[in-house]
Amino acid sequence: MKLVDSMKNFKKNISEQFAEFSVQKPNEAKSKKHIYADYVELICLFSNDFVSQSDVIDRMQDSGDEFNVPTPKDGSIGLVDAQEHDSAEKFINIVFEYIEERKIIYRNAYPFETESEKGIKLKDKSSLTEQQKLYVYLLIASSLKSFKKLKAEITSEFETLSEFVLKSYLPSQARILNFANNDLYNGNTKEKIKQLANDINLEYNNEEVEQISDYNSKEEGLDIVAWIPFEDNNPNTIIILGQCACGKDWFGKQNETFRYENYLKYYRQPFTHSVFMPYDLNNTKGRFGYSKDLTTNHIFFERRRILNLTSNNIFDNLKYSKQIIEKCLEY
User: Fold this and answer.
1) What are the structural domain ranges in the chain?
2) Are 50 and 118 in contact (CB under 8 A)?
3) Tens of pLDDT along 45-75?
4) How many other C-beta atoms are found inside a 10 Å radius of the C-beta of residue 81?
5) Contact, 142 vs 249, CB < 8 A?
6) For 199, how many CA atoms within 13 A lie in the half-sphere containing its CB?
7) Residue 305: C-alpha distances to residues 111, 114, 282 (Å)
8) Is 48:169 a contact under the CB 8 Å cutoff?
9) Among 226, 204, 218, which Cα is nearest to 273's?
C-alpha cells in the first residue's frame, strides 16, 4: 500500500512539475561558473536547437540580471548599456569556455555537443547512452530550484546512487548501508545508532546518544555508512561516514557527519568522512576547483567520480529519476 501511495504521489508531482515548467536562473555569484554552466546545459535539455551565447545573455537579462554594472554619476544610460553588454559577453564567454572543458573531461559521458559559431546542443535524444542519461540526472539533481515538485524523489534516489557509488569504490568485502533509508534498523534515532554501533562492533557514547530526542527518527546528518570488516571482527578498521548534498549549500553540510564523532567511539583508526554531490568541481589538473569551499578533511564524490564509479543498469535502482529524465527529454 505504501508503494502504491508513493507512486500515486509521484505521478501527481511530476504532472504538476511539468504543467508550467521553466528553467530558473541561478542567483549565485558569477565566480561559480560551474553553476552557470549547469544553467546553460539545463536550457539545452529543453531546447530542440543550439543555444548560443547571445541566447543565454538575453534570457538572463530578461530575468533581471544586470551583470553588476554600476550606473555612472552622470546618469549616462547608453554607457551603462554598453558596459553591461560587454560585461555579459565576457562572463558568458567564460562559461562557454568552461563547457568546452567539460566536453573534454567527460568525453563519451557528456550528453551535449558544441560548435563554436552555434553554441551548445543536446545530442540526439533517442541515442543517449546510460552514462549520458546519468549525467542528465546529475544535472537535474544539481538544479533543484527548477524541480521543486520533484525534490523528494530526486534527493532520495541520489542517496541510493551514492550507496552504489561507494560500493563500486570499496573492496568486495565492504559493507555499505543507506542509513537514511533502510529496513534493517527500527525505532527512533537513538535506537538506530545503537544498532549501527553493534553491527560495526563499536562502543557508543550513551551520554551523548541519550541527548537525542525520543521523538527524533531522522538520521542526524548521516546518510551513507560503510566499513571494511576483518575476519577477526576487530573494530580497528576503515569506517566511512557519508553525507549526500544536492542543495547549493552543500559546503555547509560537510560538518554534519562529525556529530557521530560524539555518538560512536572509534577504535584507534579515526572515521573517514565523505560528501556525495551531483555538482561538477572542475577537476581538470588533478585538483578540485573551488577549493575554498572544501573546508574539511573529506573524500569528495562529485559528478566526475560518480560517473566513473557507476556501473551499467543503475537506473534499475533509480526508477523515479529515470521517469523524470524521460519526461525532460519529451518535454
Assistant:
1) 21-123, 149-320
2) yes
3) 999 899 999 999 999 988 887 665 444 444 5
4) 11
5) no
6) 18
7) 17, 23, 11
8) no
9) 226
- Of 244, 248, 240, nearest in space to 297 by CA: 240
The cell for 150 is 520533484
Amino acid at 232: D
Measured distance between the N- and C-terminal CA atoms of the chain, rounded to whole angstroms: 31
CA–CA separation, 311 and 318 (whole Å) = 13
The span from the CA of 149 to the CA of 17, in Å, is 5
pTM of the model: 0.91
Q: What is the pLDDT of residues 95-133, one digit of tens each?
A: 999 999 999 999 999 999 999 899 999 999 999 999 999
What does each C-alpha distance from 122 to 112, 288, 312 come to in angstroms? 4, 26, 22
Cα 186 vs. chain centroid, distance in angstroms?
A: 28
Task: Return the SS3 of 204.
Answer: strand
Spatial distance between the Cα atoms of 46 and 21, rounded to a whole number of angstroms: 10
